[in-house]
């Protein structure tokens, strides 16, 4: 279905059940060209955005430009991951009746707020932003889509202001909602108030409240659920593929009990609930190892590369078809082709598929992210983020890009000025963060990259 050479099993009807409220924009604007749908316009805006292009310079798992012992891996960046996530999500969403452009827009947007240095950079920026509301990549994505990315300005008076105000890409309500993984503010998780995951900063509440108008509190829309599962599928499968290409994982170790236990320990509490029985994970891994297409060895040869590519295609299809069939069985048992959209249904992912996906994540985590040399790199990256924030705070507006300089100079208070500095750092790539740090601190070479 979602890998090469596969097909969807449920054709979708032609009608599209989205209404004018779904297609509304935070700031009203006229169509430039008749014939394009609102969601086609959304997709085009994200594809042409500088924010999406910047993801090319942000590490996914394996550092671009490195060479593994098996083969030059040309590893994924955040950009290529987002493109692959979008392909998976577009097909899965279409098979379930979603507007494919809407789901693709959400998938392309889901990592736009990702800062330099991966989740390590996210944690470091959260510490920097502790006195201005914290930092979370998903909340930053919403901020970027609705405020930071230069595309549209609303006239004076919009939102109560007295001057024209940036409304970012000015996407539709449905697109912004579909791109929101965590539809609550800090501390607002519906079942775990201590969760660090949230989707909106307090000063972005007006547009967030507009997006969420009339929908169940704390609940993600169907398209966002499709995006979230597509993200899990894409990165679990492709991170493993990159790890094998780079020579960080020898697939034969997955048959050895000590290494298998290490994988389960990584998965439990991080990728599956803390009370998960390790035997369930063992069964999940065994199911994957038993597949005829599973790559039991990898030597970088053309035949190995082709075999691994087939395995990634098979895995993506396996996970997506499982979700499609389970969701249809729950919400459209007669398989009539009912369109499942917005808040009319919930995506159903079988437990077996979630456990298999979690095992793949844990393998990449154990053998790539937990390599001994990565601890030092992560520590250096946190220093870069912290020192960069200190240097910008001392010198600002010097050192800020023109866009952020203007925002800093017009910010009404210290909290708002701090948020501008955080926005500036979050917009940087791995390399540009290191370069700016070196320039502002007079420490050439202090630009660690890596995980």
TrEMBL record:
Q: Which InterPro entries match?
A: dGTPase, dGTPase-like, dNTPase_2, HD/PDEase_dom, HD_domain, PHydrolase_assoc_dom
Q: Which residues cross the membrane?
A: none
Where on the tree of life does the source sit, at the highest rank?
Bacteria
SMART domains xref list: HDc
Q: Which GO terms describe its molecular function?
A: dGTPase activity
Q: Which residues form the signal peptide?
A: none
**Protein's UniProt keywords contain Hydrolase:** yes
A Gene Ontology BP annotation from the UniProt entry = dGTP catabolic process
All residue ranges annotated as the HD domain in the record: 78-236
**Entries under CDD domains matching the protein:** HDc
Instruction: Keywords in alphabetical order, please.
Output: Hydrolase
Matches recorded under NCBIfam families: dGTP_triPase (TIGR01353), PRK03007.1 (NF002829)
- What protein family is recorded? Belongs to the dGTPase family. Type 2 subfamily.
Name of the protein in question? Deoxyguanosinetriphosphate triphosphohydrolase-like protein
């Amino acid at each position: 279905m979602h890998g090469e050479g596969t097909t969807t099993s449920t054709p979708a009807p032609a009608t599209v059940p989205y209404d004018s409220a779904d297609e509304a924009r935070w700031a009203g604007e006229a169509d430039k060209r008749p014939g394009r749908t609102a969601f086609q316009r959304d997709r085009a805006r994200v594809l042409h955005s500088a924010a999406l292009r910047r993801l090319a310079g942000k590490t996914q798992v394996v550092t671009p430009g490195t060479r593994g012992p098996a083969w030059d891996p040309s590893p994924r960046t955040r950009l290529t991951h987002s493109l692959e996530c979008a392909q998976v999500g577009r097909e899965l969403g279409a098979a379930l009746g979603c507007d494919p452009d809407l789901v693709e827009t959400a998938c392309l947007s889901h990592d736009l707020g990702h800062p330099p240095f991966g989740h390590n950079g996210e944690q470091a920026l959260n510490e920097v932003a502790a006195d201005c509301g914290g930092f979370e990549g998903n909340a930053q994505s919403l901020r970027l889509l609705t405020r930071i990315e230069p595309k549209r300005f609303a006239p004076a008076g919009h939102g109560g202001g007295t001057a024209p105000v940036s409304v970012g890409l000015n996407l539709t309500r449905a697109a912004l909602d579909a791109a929101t993984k965590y539809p609550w503010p800090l501390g607002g998780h519906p079942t775990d108030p201590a969760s660090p995951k949230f989707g909106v900063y307090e000063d972005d509440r007006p547009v967030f409240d507009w997006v969420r108008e009339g929908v169940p509190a704390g609940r993600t829309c169907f398209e966002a659920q499709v995006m979230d599962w597509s993200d899990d599928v894409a990165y679990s499968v492709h991170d493993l593929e990159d790890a094998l290409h780079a020579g960080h994982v020898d697939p034969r170790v997955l048959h050895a009990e000590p290494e298998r236990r290490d994988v389960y320990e990584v998965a439990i509490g991080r990728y599956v609930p803390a009370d998960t029985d390790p035997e369930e994970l063992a069964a999940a891994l065994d199911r994957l190892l038993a597949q005829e297409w599973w790559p039991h060895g990898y030597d970088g040869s053309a035949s190995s590369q082709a075999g691994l590519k087939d395995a990634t295609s098979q895995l993506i299809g396996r996970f997506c078809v499982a979700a499609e069939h389970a969701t249809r069985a729950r919400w459209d048992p007669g398989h009539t082709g009912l369109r499942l959209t917005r808040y009319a249904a919930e995506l159903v992912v079988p437990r077996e598929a979630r456990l298999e996906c979690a095992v793949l994540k844990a393998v990449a985590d154990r053998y790539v992210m937990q390599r001994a040399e990565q601890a030092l790199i992560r520590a250096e990256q946190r220093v870069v983020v912290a020192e960069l924030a200190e240097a910008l705070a001392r010198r600002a507006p010097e050192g800020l890009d023109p866009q952020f300089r203007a925002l800093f100079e017009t910010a009404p208070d210290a909290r708002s000025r701090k948020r501008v500095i955080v926005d500036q750092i979050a917009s940087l790539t791995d390399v540009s963060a290191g370069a700016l740090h070196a320039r502002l601190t007079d420490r050439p070479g202090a630009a660690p990259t890596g995980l």
